[in-house]
């Protein structure tokens, strides 16, 4: 019986996988990572370091829609681990053919659909070219924050293909990704979560099992809804405090030792110089260099807004915060800055620059 000629994309993926595996590593010992953006590049750094330190047989492959991003990352990794197998592949399908455990860290729903379900080059297309036993050994870990319904649909398609997928969105921003202090919120079946957990520990310090598929995303969307609202509230509190004569550092020292304390006030404070009393800085001290881009916060609040509408909820603070971020995200300059830059916009709406003599606060929080 004659075998039908394979389509070009199928042949390319098969040949790429064969070339990769012929270099020595097995698919079972290979980890794949797709998405080397502001978060993904640091997550991949920590994952490859931990993998190579603990497993001499481990190999690592990466893919990004930007060829230069994946090649640059691979070159840097090879300089740190000379002689180890680190390769870039051209499509997600090739990654699926070559790695048994694959992480994806992408901007949002459209990119997840492209990477997972593209007919010729997606992960599902790559899985379809493998035998059943190999597919069943495959674990896909999606760390993207996206629409829960989209994630559940992709999860079902992966399960139908014979593989396993979990949602594992993260919290902690670019700094957390760099320092391996992220929090992961897991949703999915227990077996793939158990496979992913040791690898996730290389990239974060908190791993929460939230339940079945989609539960990790539910937790992440609710968390970021609270974060967006709290940043607005902290910004308004500091505008008021300065109008009443307080310096940002004095007010921050009080709030962060009192009941108003939160991540937006203590770690990512939106006011330049506010954390000087503690010897720390925030994106506000670096011209709002992200961090977590305002455009991404608008996206996450949009996901929350869709869920709120779907469930017919009346959540006025959520609606207000989403509208503020959504409108600001249309400005390319502001959208590319850290989301705490919302403070500057609210400040401008209330009379522009507020100048207060910076009080000096000692270790006890007392202004001199």
Brief account:
With 368 residues, the protein is of the alpha/beta class.
State the order of secondary-structure elements, H for helix, E for strand. Answer: HEHEHEHEHHHEHEEHEHEHHHHHHH
Q: Can you tell me the CATH topology of the largest domain?
A: Rossmann fold
Shape: globular
**Helical content class:** 40-55%
CATH architecture of the largest domain: 3-Layer(aba) Sandwich
Distance between the termini: 90 Å
- Radius of gyration from the CA trace? 23 Å
EC number: 1.1.1.31
Domain 6-phosphogluconate dehydrogenase NADP-binding: 30-210
Pfam family, one: NAD_binding_2
GO molecular function: 3-hydroxyisobutyrate dehydrogenase activity; NAD binding; NADP binding
Structure overview:
The protein is an alpha/beta fold. The protein folds into two domains: 25-212, NAD(P)-binding Rossmann-like Domain (Rossmann fold, 3-Layer(aba) Sandwich), CATH 3.40.50; 221-350, N-(1-d-carboxylethyl)-l-norvaline Dehydrogenase, domain 2. It has 17 helices and nine strands. The protein has helices at 8-21, 40-54, 67-80, 92-98, 109-117, 123-128, 132-136, 148-160, 173-179, 190-200, 215-243, 248-255, 263-266, 294-310, 316-328, 332-335, 342-348, and strands at 30-34, 59-63, 86-88, 101-104, 139-142, 164-167, 170-171, 182-187, 204-211. The strands form two sheets. A six-stranded parallel β-sheet has the order 3-2-1-4-5-6, with helices on both faces. A three-stranded mixed β-sheet has the order 7-8-9. Helix 11 crosses helix 14 and helix 11 packs across helix 15 (316-328). It is globular, with a radius of gyration of 23 Å.
